[in-house]
Amino acid sequence: MPDDVKTGQETGTAAWAKIWGAGITPTYAVNHRMFECWARGMARFSHDMAQFMQSRLLEESMRWEKLASCRDPADAFDCESRFVVKASTDYSEAAQRFLRLWYEIANSYGTLTRTEPKDGYVAGGRSVTPTRRGR
Question: Is the pLDDT score of 5 beyond 50?
Answer without folding.
Answer: yes
